[in-house]
Structure formats: structure tokens, C-alpha cells
Design goal:
The chain contains ten helices and no strands. Helix 4 runs antiparallel to helix 7. The protein is mainly alpha-helical and 225 residues long. 36% of the residues are buried. It is globular. The protein starts with 9 loop residues before the first helix and ends with a helix. It binds N-[(4-amino-2-methylpyrimidin-5-yl)methyl]formamide. The site of N-[(4-amino-2-methylpyrimidin-5-yl)methyl]formamide has 11 residues, from helix 4, helix 7 and helix 10. N-[(4-amino-2-methylpyrimidin-5-yl)methyl]formamide binds next to helix 4, helix 7 and helix 10. This is Bifunctional TENA-E protein. InterPro entries: Haem_Oase-like_multi-hlx, TenA_E, Thiaminase-2/PQQC, Thiamine_Salvage_TenA.
């Protein structure tokens, strides 16, 4: 058996296999409505409040990935990639606070909706030391990639994204964030290359579950509270 250098990793194979849920997560009606300018601002405000709460729960998850990268990865660059993600979360929280005052959203009164709570519980479960590093990395990639793909779509040619929403789109749709997602994907693919069959099936399952949670997350914006 020869070991040929593959350009395509297992993640691309899984994305092809689970294309319909991947598309549902990255081309959701809410995202498409931002791109075509028909977005309902009460939906945007709902999303903003819920996403701020999500990000506050995501920080400890990324911190736990960072710790595992330091302990378990043979590659010293893994930790640097994750640390870069942590640093942008710091800016992101400040951005959310500025947006809150711009849109008159009071985060202190935002209550996490069911989809948000469930997603948060899933992240908490992934922080367990029993979860394999390759599985955590796969989840981490999927979470970041959905936002990158979704918001980059709102900036592609032909968009009618309202000017006041381009800040959000640039936050996750910019080329630096795309590069970062690609680095995280390379780490996950590298870990999965040597993973056991059990780890592979767990990682594939976690990938699909992230996509499902992301769809449910976008769905909350429809409520428009
Ligand atoms: C629900 C959800 N998924 C992914 C992201 C992107 N990661 C960090 O910001 C996000 N903000 N919210």
C-alpha cells in the first residue's frame, strides 16, 4: 500500500457525502436574505443577541481545544492557529457590544433560546477529556467554517447586502478568516489521517451534528423576538 499525498482530506469527502445538510447550514434563508437585502431587521437583532450568548459559550470550548493542542499535538503550530482564533474572539466580543448599541439590543435581557441552549450543551460535552482531539478539531472546524461560508456568500459578486450589515459579513467573510478556517481544516484532516475507525466515525457524526445545530441556530432568527 502506497501512501500518496492527498490534496483532498477526509473532511471534503464527508462534506460531499452530507452535502444537503452542509448547504442547509451555509445557505440558510436568513443568510440569503442578508445577501439579497430582504432581511428583516428584527430577525437580525434576534440573531445578534443569540449569537453573542453563543460566542460567550464558545470561548471556553476554544480554550479547551487550545489546552488539548498544547498537550496532545505533535505540531507546535496547532496551538498558534487556535490561539489566533481566541484572539479574534476577543475582538469579536467587543464588536458584538458595539453592534448591540447600534441596533439597540440589550444583551443583559437576552434569554438563550432552546436551540442555543442545546448547542451550548453539545459544546460542553465536547470539552470532556474523553473526546478525542481529532473529534474536537473536526467540530471546531465545522463551527467556524459555517460562518465563514455563510458570510462570505453575502459579500460575493452581485450581493445587495445592506451597508449596515456588511460589518457582520466582513467579520466572518474576510480572507483572513478563510485562511484561518483552512488552517483548522488542515489540522483536523491531519489528525484524522491517523485516527482509529472509532474516532473517524465519531468525527463524522460530530460534523453532521454541528451542521444540524447551525441550521437550528439560523432558524431562531425567524422568531424575530
Ligand atoms: C452559531 C455560531 N456558529 C459559529 C460562529 C462562528 N464562530 C465564532 O464566532 C458563531 N459566531 N456562531
Amino acid at each position: 500500500m502506497e501512501k500518496k499525498p492527498e490534496r483532498r482530506g477526509v473532511i471534503d469527502t464527508w462534506i460531499d457525502k452530507h452535502r444537503s445538510i452542509y448547504t442547509a447550514a451555509t445557505r440558510h434563508a436568513f443568510v440569503v436574505s442578508i445577501r439579497d437585502g430582504s432581511v428583516d431587521l428584527s430577525s437580525f437583532r434576534t440573531w445578534l443577541g443569540q449569537d453573542y450568548l453563543f460566542v460567550r459559550g464558545f470561548v471556553p470550548f476554544v480554550a479547551s481545544v487550545l489546552i488539548r493542542a498544547g498537550k496532545e499535538s505533535g505540531e507546535s503550530s496547532d496551538m498558534e492557529v487556535v490561539l489566533g482564533g481566541m484572539a479574534s474572539l476577543n475582538d469579536e466580543i467587543e464588536w458584538f457590544k458595539r453592534e448591540a448599541s447600534k441596533w439597540d439590543v440589550d444583551f443583559s435581557t437576552v434569554v438563550p433560546q432552546k436551540a442555543n441552549q442545546e448547542y451550548n450543551r453539545f459544546l460542553e460535552a465536547l470539552m470532556s477529556s474523553e473526546v478525542k482531539y481529532s473529534v474536537m478539531m473536526t467540530a471546531f472546524w465545522a463551527i467556524e467554517a459555517v460562518y465563514q461560508e455563510s458570510f462570505a456568500h453575502c459579500l460575493e459578486d452581485g450581493n445587495k447586502t445592506p451597508l449596515e450589515l456588511t460589518g457582520a459579513c466582513h467579520r466572518w467573510g474576510n480572507d483572513g478568516f478563510k485562511q484561518y478556517c483552512s488552517s483548522v481544516k488542515n489540522i483536523a484532516d491531519r489528525c484524522l489521517e491517523t485516527a482509529s475507525g472509532e474516532a473517524l466515525s465519531e468525527a463524522e457524526d460530530v460534523l453532521v451534528r454541528v451542521l444540524e445545530y447551525e441550521v437550528a441556530f439560523w432558524e431562531m432568527s425567524r422568531g424575530g423576538e
